[in-house]
Amino acid sequence: MCPRFAAGLSVICSLALSHLAVGAEPFNLTIPGQGWFIAFESPSLSNFVGQTNGKSSQFRAIGETGFNVTIYVEEPKGKSESHESCFNYYWPLAKRNPTIDQPSVKVMKTDRFVKVSYVSKVAEGNKETATSNVNYYFRFKGRWVDVHVSRYPPRKDDDEVLAAFEKSISYRTSKSESKSP
């Protein structure tokens, strides 16, 4: 369970599977009690876990191909007027992870989100495996959102899969309103 939440919380995040796309599945993740959802396309996902604590939620899913998605939606921990506010709070905490190869960290600020891409090095016996990771930090409807994607074990098409995920990610208050991060 995510350390951002206490044990014993009820699972209430809902996931609706839409039409099947080639190599990816569209997902709509409803944010409980907030009146909006996050949409994205990714390789097939399973092992869904979701929980809420007041106005904060966490969702996690893992696919058979090792594609992982974790989404945190929380009340701001400070001034919340921009995507950068969310990034400035959470990335200093996240970057302390000892598996992150610090020279690989790249930060890109856009109108949609602040993107942090990096490589994690995972020890497997006598060898080390490099895994691509991306965090998307943004603000929407008075909440801070941290979307983390990775794939383990790594595959040759990781860059392509991560790029397709990034292109597809959006958040909306209704299916007719088309807002992207």
Provide an overview of this structure.
There is one protein chain. This protein has helices at residues 83-94, 158-168; strands at 14-17, 25-31, 36-42, 46-53, 56-62, 67-74, 106-109, 114-124, 127-140, 143-151, 170-172. By secondary structure, the protein is mostly beta strands. The chain has one domain: Protein Transport Mog1p, Chain A, CATH 3.40.1000. It has a seven-stranded antiparallel beta sheet with strand order 4-5-6-10-9-8-7. The longest helix has 12 residues, at 83-94. The radius of gyration is 16 Å and the shape is globular. The two termini are 27 Å apart.
Stated plainly, the CATH topology is called Protein Transport Mog1p, Chain A
Mean pLDDT: 82
Spatial order of the strands in the main sheet?
4-5-6-10-9-8-7
Structural class determined from secondary elements: mainly beta
Largest sheet entry: 7 strands, antiparallel
Task: Identify the CATH homologous superfamily.
Answer: Mog1/PsbP, alpha/beta/alpha sandwich
**What is the straight-line distance between the termini?**
27 Å
| Helix content percent band | 10-25%
C-alpha geometry: globular
Rg (CA only): 16 Å
> How many β-strand runs?
11
